[in-house]
Amino acid sequence: QVQLVESGGGLVQPGGSLRLSCAASGIRYALYAMGWYRQAPGKQREVVAMITEGGTTTYADFVKGRFTITRDNTKNTIYLSMDNLQPEDTAVYYCKSQSVMEQAVHWGQGTQITVAS
């Protein structure tokens, strides 16, 4: 059974920091690119950051310089370190895994981040 379990969300003040984690199980992790998406109320889900099987990273323009995505292949886990959070970053953040080789996409259930004073 495939599971992507996110953790680390919560309430933070503007300018604050958080780190999200996503632990994957039930997949051949080394074959998967991993990433973070977010969905704010009334908006479409959008990509935040992705990291390939080999560790190459890409970021949405709105998070460049503030967010960092990493992966720990010994723990089948990815992380999203977020600095200088702003109210517009408020959203549900989802972990995603995708594999061209296995033709598979999986989603986590999401974790809420609220940025407010």
Sum up the structure in keywords.
117 residues; seven-stranded mixed β-sheet; globular; four-stranded antiparallel β-sheet; mainly beta; 11 strands; single chain
Short précis:
The chain has no helices and eleven strands. With 117 residues, the chain is mainly β.
Characterise the protein shown here:
- The chain has strands spanning 3-7, 10-12, 18-25, 33-39, 46-51, 57-59, 67-72, 77-82, 91-99, 104-107, 111-115.
- 29% of the residues are buried.
- A hairpin with a 5-residue loop joins strand 5 and strand 6 (57-59).
- The strands form two sheets. Strands 2, 4, 5, 6, 9, 10 and 11 form a seven-stranded mixed β-sheet that branches. The chain has a four-stranded antiparallel β-sheet with strand order 1-3-8-7, with no helix packed on it.
- It has no helices and eleven strands.
- It is globular, with a radius of gyration of 14 Å.
- 0% of the residues lie in helices and 53% in strands.
- It has 117 residues and is mostly beta strands.
